[in-house]
């Protein structure tokens, strides 16, 4: 009799846990920006170049989604679709990010730029780009933003180009 009650109790507990778990999944997925899956084709964790020396860092779809939202609130006024409106010659394409001095085609390089914006050739500070001080965005937030930009530069159709395509 006791074992039957124990089995019933455990079964009921499992049903409750599964119901709660399955309810939380759509809520988590609802926080992911559709752009991340549709255009970047990211549905699971990815690795992004951290420093140009072979070190990488992992980012989840949620972190990329957070980065996209930060991009929308901090960068999109000048960088629509990866273009750079104040200086169209210097887009956020992967090629242009690699050719910058210092290179901005990895998390650390792009974060350093966002913390202290410099001209494309690295010779002086620029006021075209908004400085994202630690008091404005945390290190993780700026890294999420950088990961979004780098992932979009690699995967989004037309990102940072003059010709947009599918």
From TrEMBL:
GO terms for cellular component: photosystem II. Residues 62-153 form the Cytochrome c domain. Belongs to the cytochrome c family. PsbV subfamily. GO terms for molecular function: electron transfer activity; heme binding; iron ion binding. Residues 1-29 form the signal peptide. It is found in: Membrane. InterPro entries: Cyt_c-like_dom (IPR009056), Cyt_c-like_dom_sf (IPR036909), Cytochrom_C550 (IPR029490), PsbV_cyt_c550-like (IPR016003). Its main location: membrane. GO terms for biological process: photosynthesis; respiratory electron transport chain. SUPFAM superfamilies: Cytochrome c. Gene3D superfamilies: Cytochrome c-like domain. It comes from Hassallia byssoidea VB512170. Its cofactor is heme c. It comes from the Bacteria. This is Photosystem II cytochrome PsbV2.
